[in-house]
Specification:
The complex is a heterodimer.
Chain A (H helix, E strand, L loop, with lengths): L4 E3 L2 E4 L5 E6 L4 E10 L3 E9 L2 E5 L6 E5 L5 E5 L8 E9 L9 E2 L3 E5 L1
Parallel strand pairs in A: 2-11
Antiparallel strand pairs in A: 1-3, 3-8, 4-5, 4-9, 5-6, 7-8, 9-10, 9-11
Chain B lengths: L3 E3 L4 E4 L4 E7 L6 E7 L6 E6 L3 E5 L2 E6 L4 E6 L8 E9 L8 E4 L3 E6 L1
Parallel strand pairs in B: 2-11
Antiparallel strand pairs in B: 1-3, 3-8, 4-5, 4-9, 6-7, 7-8, 9-10, 9-11
The chains are: A mainly beta, B mainly beta.
Chain lengths: ~120, ~120
C-alpha cells in the first residue's frame, strides 16, 4: 500500500509569490491534515480536511488555505509569501477507522524556501 | 505555558542503556497521545500511541501515561545507535465537532546513542 505522497519535494519561491502544495493520502484515508515545521516553532498544525470539508483549523493567517477533493487528495496554498514561511510542510492522513484516535501517517514533506 | 512540553535535550545515552523521554501536556481533555520519531531530514514516523492510563509495551519501547499528572513518557530499552533521532510527543486536542482533531507537538527531544 502506497504511503502519503507529497509533491513537489522542494520549492524555491520569492517573497510575494504564491505556492500550491499537493498531498495524496494513503488509499482509503479520508482525513488529511497539514503541518508546518520550522526550527524555531517546531511542528504546528495548520488545518484538517475530512470529506472535502475543513474540520479543524490552527492559528495561522488567512494567507494559508487548503482544500480537499472528492478523491481525498488535498492541496494547500500560501499566498503573498513571506520569508518566515520557509519551512517543511508536512501532510498526514488518517483512515475512517482510526480518525477518532487520530493516528496520523506523515508524508515526506515539501521543503519550501522563500527568498 | 506551552500546550505540550518535552524535557530539553539533547539526551545522550550509551548503547544498551535505557533512554527515558518525558512529556507534559496542559489540556486535561486530551484523549490520545503519541510518540513520533524523526530522523534528520526525514518526516515523523509513528512509534507508539497510548490512550489509557498505564503502560503500553511494543518491543523495546514502553509508553507510560498518567492523566492525573498530565504526563506521558517513552522508555527505550537496550538503546541502539540507530535510535539516535528526535522524539516528538504529540497530543490530540478534540476538534470543534469532537471528531478528528489536531495533533499538538512538543518541541522534541534529540536522543543520541553512543556506541
Amino acid at each position: 500500500k502506497a504511503g502519503v505522497t507529497q509533491t513537489p519535494r522542494y520549492l524555491i519561491k520569492t517573497r510575494g509569490q504564491q505556492v500550491t502544495l499537493s498531498c495524496s493520502p494513503i488509499s482509503g484515508h479520508r482525513s488529511v491534515s497539514w503541518y508546518q515545521q520550522t526550527p524555531g516553532q517546531g511542528l504546528q498544525f495548520l488545518f484538517e480536511y475530512f470529506s472535502e470539508t475543513q474540520r479543524n483549523k490552527g492559528n495561522f493567517p488567512g494567507r494559508f488555505s487548503g482544500r480537499q477533493f472528492s478523491n481525498s487528495r488535498s492541496e494547500m496554498n500560501v499566498s503573498t509569501l513571506e520569508l518566515g514561511d520557509s519551512a517543511l510542510y508536512l501532510c498526514a492522513s488518517s483512515s475512517d477507522r482510526t480518525v477518532a484516535k487520530n493516528i496520523q501517517y506523515f508524508g515526506a514533506g515539501t521543503r519550501l524556501s522563500v527568498l | 505555558q506551552k500546550e505540550v512540553e518535552q524535557n530539553s535535550g539533547p539526551l545522550s545515552v550509551p548503547e544498551g542503556a535505557i533512554a527515558s523521554l518525558n512529556c507534559t501536556y496542559s489540556d486535561r481533555g486530551s484523549q490520545s497521545f503519541f510518540w513520533y520519531r524523526q530522523y534528520s531530514g526525514k518526516s515523523p514516523e509513528l512509534i507508539m500511541s497510548i490512550y489509557s492510563n498505564g503502560d503500553k509495551e511494543d518491543g523495546r519501547f514502553t509508553a507510560q501515561l498518567n492523566k492525573a499528572s498530565q504526563y506521558v513518557s517513552l522508555l527505550i530499552r537496550d538503546s541502539q545507535p540507530s535510535d539516535s533521532a528526535t522524539y516528538l510527543c504529540a497530543v490530540n486536542l478534540k476538534g470543534v465537532y469532537n471528531q478528528g482533531g489536531k495533533l499538538i507537538f512538543g518541541q522534541g527531544t534529540e536522543l543520541s546513542v553512543k556506541p
